[in-house]
Amino acid sequence: MTVISTTIGQSVSRIDGFAKVTGQARYAAEPHPSGMLYGVIVNSPIARGRIETIREEAARAVPGVVEIMTHLNRPHTALFEKSYVDGLGVPGSPYRPLHDGEIRFNGQPVAVVFAETFEAAREAAMLMEVDYERWPHNADFEVALHQKYMPEKPRSNYVPPKSRGKAAEAYALSPIKVEGHYHLAPEHHNPMEMHATTVIVEDDGKFTVWDKTQGPQAVQAYLTSALSLSKDQVRVRNPYVGGAFGSGLRAQHNVFLAALAAKMLKRSVRVSLTRQQMFTHVFRPEAIMDIALGATPDGTLQSMIVEGVTDTSRFEHNMENLVVWGLINYKCPNATADYKVVPRDTYTSSDMRAPGAATGVNLFEMAIDEMAYACSMDPLTFRLHNYSDIDAMHDMPLTSKALREAMLQGAERFGWQNRPMTPGKMRDGKELIGWGMATGIWDAMFSPTSARARLTADGRLHIATAASDIGTGTYTILAQTASEAFNIPLDQIDIELGDSTLPQCPTEGGSWTAASAGAAVWLACQSLREKLFKTLGKNSNISAWLTEGLRHNTVVLQDGFLKNTDGDEAFEMSLRDALSLTGQTELEVEETAKPGLRGTISQMRKARFTHSAVFCEVRVDEELGIVRVTRLVNAVAAGRIMNPKTAASQVRGAMVMATGMALHEESLMDERVGRFMNHNFSEYHIPAHADIPDMDVLFVNEEDTEVSPLGIKGVGEIGMCGTAAAIANAIFHATGRRHYNLPIVPGD
Ligand code: MOS
User: Fold this and answer.
1) DSSP string, 215-272
2) How many whole angstroms from 91 Cα to the centroid of ligand 1?
3) CATH 3.40.1190.20 holds for 167-187+283-445+604-742
4) What is the pLDDT of residues 113-144, one digit of tens each?
5) Is the ipTM of this complex over 0.85?
C-alpha cells in the first residue's frame, strides 16, 4: 500500500511552479484578443486645479491612434452618479476616474489614448497637451497635521481603541518614563506584476476581464455597479497574480478605464500601468506615532499612551488599525490610544501588507525596547514580564496565544542568552554588532467561503473556488487539503482559482485565505465522498463486498481507491471504476464553510490573533553608518501550518519587506508639485539579495480549534509585524543610539 505523502502539514513544492517558470501562467496583461487596442494613461502633472483645455491634434495625428478618452467624451455610467458608492474603496466621496475637469491629485488620469500598438499609444500620450488652472494644494504631511480628523463613518474593518484605567495619571506617577515621536515614511507597492487589465469583448458583447486583483468577484461586483452591467455580462479572471500585498484589494483605475473604453469602443482593450505610474498611487500611508510608556523599576508597565495619525486624500478616508496593537498585546493597567487621519491633496493611501500593524506594531515594539532598557531589563525578559494571556484592550479571552513559546524558542534558536545587555559591546573590526528582538501580532481571520468538488470519469478530483493565489501558495495548500480530505494523491487533483464564475470566495487578503478556502475545500471533499458512497449504495449492480462494506460503513477512500477495511480480503476499486458503476459521468458538490463549523466560534466572543517573535543581528559600519542585517530568526505561532515550505516562504517574503521598511523603502514627496519624486528603482530603494541574510523561520506548535475548522490561523502578514522593530532594536544594541524614524538610513 502506498502512503499518501501530500497531506496537510507536509512541505510540498508549489504545484503551480512549473506553469510559472515555463511562462504558461498567464497574467492580466498577457491575453491578446484579436483587434485589441492598447490604452496609455495621461496623468495630471499638477496636484489641484482644473483642466482648461485639452489639445489632441498632435496625438490624434499619430498613425494607429483610434480614440482618446477624456472627461469630455467618455460615456456616462453609474460611477459618475452622485449616489455611487465604491464598495471596494474606503468611506468618503469615491474617486471617479475621468469624472470631470477637476484635478484632485498629481498623477490623476486626465486622458487615455487608445491605439493599435502600444508604441503608438505611448507616443500619442506624450503629445497630449493639457492646460490647467492651478489651485493651491498641500501635499505636506507635517503641514496638514493640524487638519487631522476622525472620519464620521470609519472604515468597516476599523477597530476603535478602547482605554482602560487612568493612563495620563498613571504615566505622571510612573517612576520610569519613555516618550518617543515616531515616524514612518510612505512606502509604495512594487509587486513584480504591475496593475494591468485586459478586457476581452467576446462575440456576444460580454466582457472577460483579466485584471491584476486579489478578488475576481470583488472586481466583478465593482464593474457591474460602476458600469451598470449585469453580473452575467462581466467575468473577471486572475488565475495568477504576480504579487499583490494589498494593492489589489480595491479596484484600481486601470480596470475601470479599460472596461469603460471597451464599452465605448466596443473593442477589446488593455490598460497597464508603468512602474512610474504605480508611484502615483498604491502606497502605505505615512505615519506618526507618539508613544509614552510608564513603568515601575521592576519592569512592570503602568501606563501606555499611544497617539497616531496616517495620511489620506482630501476626498476619501483611508484608515488603519495603527494604535491598538500594544494595548491588545501587553498587560498594563492603564492605557489609552487615539487615532486620526490627515488629509492631503494626493491620491488616497492604501492597504499594504499587514496594514496598520506593519506600522503600529513595529513602532510600538521600538518603544518597548527603549522601556526595557530604561528599566535595565533584557528586552525579552521585559516582554515576558508584561505578557498578557488575553486581549487586554477588549478584556477578552483569546482562542490561543503561543507567543511565550515563540519568544523562548526563537531566543534559543538565535542564541539570545549570550547577548551582552550593554549596547556597543560586540564588534568585529570596524563593524559594531547588535542583537535586537521584537514581537509581532496580526489578526487571525476566517470568512464564509464556498468550494466545489467534482469527480470526473477519469478518476480525477477537481476543486474550484474563486480564491486568488497572489503568489502565496494557495493552489498548493488547497490541493493538499483536498488530498487529505478525499484521501487521493496530489497528482490526481486539479485546482481552479481566480475566476469570478467559480464558487464564492472572499478577496484574498488579511491572511485569511488558507483558513477560509481551506475549510471550504475540506468540507466539499467530505461531502463529495458521502455523495459517492450514497450513489454507489443505491446501485444494485455493485459487487457484494462493496454492497456489504457500504452498508456497514467499512468502505473508505484511500490513496484514490475505495477499499473495504473489514474482513481479510483486501477488495479495492479505483475511483474511475467506482464512478462508472454509478452510471454517471461525474459527481459534483458545492459546500460553504461558515464560522461555527466544527466547533469554531461564530461570534466575536473571543479575540483571535497570530503572534511571532523576531530576533535580528545587524552589523553597523562605524565610519560609514551602513547597516547590514546579518541574521534574522522569526518564530511564528499561527495555529496549524498547512505547508511549512510555502508558509515559511510567506514569512520570509514579509521579512524582506520589513527589512525594506526598516532600512530602505521611503517614498519622498516633492511638496511643491505634490508628487512622489523617487518613482523608480534607482531612487526608491528596496532590499536586494545582498541585503538579505539567511532567514530562519520556525513554527511554534499551537493548537487552535476555534479560529477555523482546520486549526489554521494563516501566515504571511505576521512576518511583517515585529521584523522592522527587531532590526531597529538591533541597531540600538550595536550603536547605543535610538532612531525614531523608519527607514533608518546612513546619516541619520
Ligand atoms: Mo494584504 S494588505 O492583502 O497583504
Assistant:
1) -HHHHHHHHHHHTT--GGGEEEE-S--S--TTTTSS--HHHHHHHHHHHHH-S-EEEE
2) 19
3) no
4) 999 999 999 999 999 999 999 999 999 999 99
5) yes
